[in-house]
Amino acid sequence: MAEPPPWLWDLPLINLYSTDIVGYMYDVPFVATPEVVVRRMLQLARVRSGEVVYDLGSGDGRIVIIAAKEFGARAFGVEIRKDLYEQSMARIKDLGLADRATIINASFYDVPLTDADVVTMYLLTTVNERLKPKLEKELRPGTRVVTHDFEVPGWRPVVVEEVYEEWRSHKLFLYKIPGKEIPIPGKMVDLNDKWLRQVAELVDGVRSLEEIAAKLGVTIRQVREAVEELRKLGVVEEVKIIK
Ligand SMILES: C[S@@+](CC[C@H](N)C(=O)[O-])C[C@H]1O[C@@H](n2cnc3c(N)ncnc32)[C@H](O)[C@@H]1O
Fold first, then answer.
1. How confident is the model at residue 18 (pLDDT cuts 50, 70, 90)?
2. What pLDDT, on the 0 to 100 scale, is given for residue 235?
3. Residue of the nearest CA to atom 27 in ligand 1?
């Protein structure tokens, strides 16, 4: 069967927006990012399989769903509105994505983001400003943040891009949390596991997790998990975070 035209998908959302009285009770009303723009946001952030993605204010869950379905991410949405939470969880279950995608019915100010590799936001500049101290405190170096239309005041974007979609253009901002996570070598141990050995050989107290990941062609998350195992074995003493 042919795909429905994209405007059909957006129609109830436009209607919902124009009558979205309940949305105005919160920081930001519900307006959906067009799917073509969602895909570009996730491409810009270079989301890779197994990475953890958070969409703050997830609306109908489309960013979470596309991140899980098309990019293989472990995707979380945080949505304050119960109706949108229920609607998006129902869709996730219908699509059989419940093992990789979930929506948290809470305020994004209250949800820890320490395990994020990528954060997406379609909020407002004032809200981004309010979220900024939390993001700076919790996100690890190398985490990518993509915002739709509204920047994070005071942060310098790595990329600013305009995406044209049917009736208007959308501005995307890509940020990268500065700093490095450097694993410090500990004691020498004979390692049987080839993957752990590969990572251990690159741990020299100078290279960051990001550099090791780039050298091995894997994600920072995969290296981080390996380094955590190496730390338990004593091969890595600690991971220094330099901001
Ligand atoms: C502009 S919509 C974006 C929806 C979705 N992220 C997208 O891009 O399609 C913003 C969403 O944030 C939600 N929201 C507003 N304040 C929130 C808060 N404090 N915590 C969680 N969600 C919130 C709104 O209910 C709304 O669904």
1. very low
2. 98
3. 59
CATH superfamily of 6-176: Vaccinia Virus protein VP39 (3.40.50.150)
pLDDT at 16: 42
Residue pLDDT, tens place only, 116-147: 999 999 999 999 999 999 999 999 999 999 99
All structural domains of the chain with their residue ranges? 6-176, 180-242
Q: What is the CATH number of domain 180-242?
A: 1.10.10
Helix ranges (DSSP H) in 51-193 = 62-71, 82-94, 125-138
Query: Which amino acids bring their CB within 6 angstroms of ligand 1?
Result: 23, 26-28, 30-33, 55, 57-59, 62-63, 78-81, 84, 107-109, 122-123, 148
Distance of alpha carbon 144 from alpha carbon 156, whole angstroms: 12
- Give 122 Cα–ligand 1 centroid separation in angstroms: 7
Query: What count of Cα atoms within 13 Å lies in the side-chain half-sphere of residue 171?
Result: 10
Nearest alpha carbon, ligand 1 atom 16? 27
Whole-model pTM: value is 0.89
